[in-house]
Amino acid sequence: MHYAWVLIMKVLPFSAFVGMEELKEALMCLAVDPKIGGLLIIGPKGTGKSSIVRAFARLLPEIEVVKGCPFNDDPHNYEELCEACKRKLEAEGGLPIERRKMRVVDLPIGATEDMVLGTINVERTLKEGRIVFEPGILAKANRNILYIDEVNLLPDHIVDSILDAVASGWNVVEREGISLKHPSRFILIGTMNPEEGELRPQLLDRFAISVKVETIRDPKLREEIVRRNLEFEDNPLKFLERWEKYENELRNKIIEARRALSKVKIPQEVLNLITSTCSRLEVDGYRPDIVAVKVARARAALHGRDVVKEEDALVALNLSLAHRTRAGGLKPPPTQEEIKRAALMTFSPSRSKGKGKSEIRLKSSHSFFRSIRKGSSGKLHKILGLLGLLALIWLFTQNFTLALLVLLLSLLLSLFGRRRTYYEEGTSLKGKRSILVLPSTNSITGKNFLI
Question: What is the pTM of this model?
Answer without folding.
Answer: 0.72
